Amino acid sequence: MSTTTQAPKALRGVGNWIDDRFHLAKTGEKNLRKVFPNHWSFMLGEIALYSFIILLVTGVFLTLWFNPSMAHTTYEGSYQRLNGVQMSEAYESTLRIDFDVRGGFLVRQIHHWAALIFVASLVAHMLRVFFTGAFRKPREINWLIGVGIFTLAMLEGLFGYSLPDDLPSGMGVRILQGVMLSLPVVGTYVSMFLFGGEFPGEDIIPRLYMLHILLIPGILLALIAAHFMILWHQKHTQYPGTGRSEKKVVGTPMFPGFAVKAGGFFFFVFAVIVGLSAFVQINPIHLFGPFTPTAITSGLQPDWYMGFMEGSLRIFPNWLDFQVFGYAVPIGVLVPGLVIPGIIFGGLAAWPFLEQWITGDKRVHNVADRPRNAPVRTAVGVAGVVFYGILWLAGANDILSHTFSISLYWTTYFFRVTAIVGPIIGFIVAKRICLGLQRRDLETLEHGYESGTIQQLPSGEFIEVHKESSQDTVHVLESKTAVDRIDDEAIASVEESESDGVEAPAARGLKGRLRAKLAHWYTKDNVSFEGVEAHTGHHLHHGAGHEEHEEMAGSH
Amino acid sequence: MKWITARRRHPLAGYVVVLLALAVFGVGYAMVAPSADRAEAQVMAAAQTGAEPADGENAVDISQGRDIWERSCASCHGLNGGGSDNAPDITGAGGAAVDFQVSTGRMPSSNPDAQMPRKEPAWNREEIDNLIAFYEEEIGQGAGPAVPEEPPGDEPVRADYEDEDAYKEAKAEYDKAYDAYIDGASDTEAGMQLYLANCAHCHSWSGAGGGLTGGHWAPEIGDATPRQLYEAMLTGPGQMPVFTEGTITPEDKQELISYVKTLQAEPNAGGIFDLNRVGQVAEGFIAWTVGLTLIIACAIWITAKQRAHD
C-alpha cells in the first residue's frame, strides 16, 4: 500500500473514532503486515480450514430439517419408490432434505464432499509438516493439536456418516459396536452404555447427533483456533533460500497480497467442492434404503478416511483369538480395530519427542528441512504412508477383487504380506533415494550444474562444462546443516574429555546406550557437507589433470 | 519430426514415452489375447452351420434341439446329460437351469474350469426353446424346475423378425407384459427386505455384484431379465443357494424382482456422474484424484507468481 495517498475523510473519521477507543492501529498494522511464505505446500492447511467452514455452514443448514430420531414411521413423501416403507424418522427426514427441501440435495452433497476433502487436506497438510520437519521445536504442541484435529475429524466423519440411518450407516455403526465389544471386560458395558441397551436400540442416533453437531465440532473449533493462534505467534516455517534464516521470514504480507490470495483460494476450494457436489453423486441414501438389522450388503465401504481401519479388520487373521475362563478375547478384532489405529495415531503424536530424544537436537527450527536432508525421518514417514496405504487398499479388497477379476482370498494374502514387507521396502528405497539426492546436492554444490555443453580440449578430449548454480540454489543446498549428521562418537569423546575419561552419564545405562545406538542409526549414512564450499570443485577449472576427467566420466 | 526433436528433452518426455508404451502394450494385449467371447464366436459359427431356424412361430423342433445338444453340449455333459470330468450331471437340473445358463450366454462354456461371465447367448430364442424342449423330452424327463412362464424373458430381437412391424408388435407386447409383471408387485418393503437379507451380501445393494471366496464372484445382475432372475433363484447356479418356491413364494419372488428392476431403473438424483453406484471407494478416489488435486493445483498456481512489491 502506498503511504502517500490518504484515506477518504469519512473513513479516516470512523477509523480514528475506533482507534481512539481500542488502539487497534498498532496491533492492526503489525498483524496486517505479517508475512506468509509463498509456497503451495503452506496452503494445504488452509484447504482444511476452508472445507471446515463449508462443513459448518452446510451443517447448520441441514440441522434445520434433520430429525435425529429413531422412532418408526411410514414414508409418504415425494420419493415414489419408497412410499409405504417403514423407516426411522432420521432416514425419513434425510429423504425430505433430499427431495422436498429446496436445494437440500445439493447442500447434503456439498456437506459430504467437503467432509472427504477436509480429511484429505488434513492428511496432505500433516504429510507436509512431517516430511519438512516443521513439527520440531518450537512447534511440537501445534503438531499434537494437529494430530488431535485429525483423530477427531475421523470420528466426526464416522458419526456424521451414521446419522441418516440408511443401509451403510447402520453397517458402519454395527462395525463400531463390534470393535467396542472386543474390549476385554468392559466391552459389553461400553456398548450398552453407548447404545442405551442392545444394538441398535432407539438412542444411538440422537446421541451420535449430539456428538456430531455439538461436542466434536466444538472441540474441533477450539483446537483449530488454538492451532491458528499458535501459528500466528510462532509464524510459518519456510523453506531455505536467499535471505531466509531462522530469524527472518520472507514472503507476502497478510494485507493486501496474502489476504487476496487466501480469499481467492477459499472461493476456489468452494467451487471445486460445489462442482463435485453438483455433478458427482455421493452417498445416494435414497437408493440404499433404510437400515434394518437383518440387512447386509457387499460393495459398501466406510468413507475413505475410515478405510484403513476397515482394511486392518479385513486382513488381520483370526488365529490368535483365545478364551479366558470361557470369555472370548477376540484378538482378531481388538488388535486391528484398536491397537493398530492406536499405533498409527500414537506414533504420529510421539514422533517429535522421539526424534528429539534420539538426535538430542533441542534447538529452535524455523527453517524447514528438505526431506532428503533427514533421510531416516523421511524413510520412516514413507514406511508409515505405505503401511497406511496398504491397509486402506485392503479395506477396498472386495471392490478391487471384483473390478480387476482377482480372487478375493489372494487380495487378502497379498495385503497380509505387503502390510509387513511393504513398509520395510518403502523405508529402504526412500532412504536410498534421499542419500542419492544428498550426494547429487554435494556434487552440485561443489562443481555447479551440468550445462549440457560439450567442449573439446586442445588435447582432443571432450568434457562437459559445469556452470555455477544460482545464488538461490547455493543457499538452498547450503541449508543442510552439520546437525543432520550427529557424530555420536564425537559427542561421546567430547563428553568423555569433559569428565576426565569417565563415560558420559548420558551414555550410561540401558536407555543411554539405546539412545546412542539410535542416534548412530539415525545419522550414520548422512552425507557430510562439512567444510564444503560452493563451486570449489575441480570441474570448473579446465586445466585440470587427465585422471580427474576420467573420474568424472566414471561417476556419470 | 521437428516437433518431437524440440520436445524430446522436456522433463516430462520420459513419462510420456512410458505412458505411450504402456498404452500400446495394454491395448495390443487386449486385442490379441483370447477372450471368452472370441472362443464363443467359434462355437457359434460351428453351431450355426447346422441350425436352420424352423418354420412357424410356436412349432417346437426337437430335432434341432438335439442337433444343438450333440454339437455344443454333449462333449462335456455327455450324450445323456450324465456329465463327465469336465462338467456336472445335469439330468436333474431342469429346464429352468438350461434356460438360465444358455440364455445368459454362460453355456456353452469356453473354459470348464472357470466361472463364466454373462455374454451374448450363442443361439436365438427359438433355438434355445428347441434345446429346452429336447432337454425336457429326452434328458431331464420332467426332473427339476421347469422354465417359469410368468416372469417376462428376453426382449425381442430385431434380427429374429422379418419386418419392422412384426418386431414392433412383439416389442410392444413384451413391454406390456414386463410392466404388468413389475407393477404387479406393490409391496416395496417386502421386496427390499428380501433382497437386502438374501441377495445383497453377494450381489451388493445395487446389484453390481461382488467378489466371493475361492476365486468366484457374484455377477452383476442389471442385465438379467426378470425370468433369468427367477430362474437363478429356482436353480441356484454356481455358488448361489437355491431359493425354492417354498422358501420364497412366487409372489415374493415377484416383489424381489420388482425391487431389483425398479432400483436399477432409478435415475441418479445426485448428479450426472453416478460413479457406477460403486460407492465409497469410488467417492474417496474422486475426492483425492479430482477434488484435492484440483485444489492443490490452484494452490501451486496462486503461489507460483510473486511480485517484487508483494
TrEMBL record, chain A:
The organism's place on the tree of life at top rank: Bacteria
Domain Cytochrome b/b6 N-terminal region profile: 14-240
EC number: 7.1.1.8
Regions crossing the membrane: 47-66, 110-131, 143-163, 175-196, 208-232, 258-280, 287-307, 327-354, 374-393, 413-430
Reaction it catalyzes: a quinol + 2 Fe(III)-[cytochrome c](out) = a quinone + 2 Fe(II)-[cytochrome c](out) + 2 H(+)(out)
Cofactor(s) essential for the protein: heme
Keyword vocabulary terms for this entry: Membrane, Transmembrane, Transmembrane helix
Transport recorded as keyword: no
Transmembrane helix as UniProt keyword: yes
InterPro entries (alphabetical): Cyt_b/b6_N (IPR005797), Cytb/b6-like_sf (IPR027387), Di-haem_cyt_TM (IPR016174)
Top-level class of the enzyme under EC nomenclature: translocase
Name recorded for this polypeptide: Cytochrome bc1 complex cytochrome b subunit
Automatic annotation (TrEMBL), chain B:
Entry-linked InterPro entries: Cyt_c-like_dom, Cyt_c-like_dom_sf, Cytochrome_c_Oxidase_Subunit
Natural source organism: Nocardiopsis endophytica
Keyword field contains Membrane: yes
Ranges annotated as spanning the membrane: 12-32, 285-304
Coiled coil location: none
Name of the protein described by the UniProt record: Cytochrome c
Pfam families: Cytochrome_CBB3
Entry annotated with the keyword Cell cycle: no
Keywords: Heme, Iron, Membrane, Metal-binding, Transmembrane, Transmembrane helix
Segments forming domain Cytochrome c: 60-139, 186-264
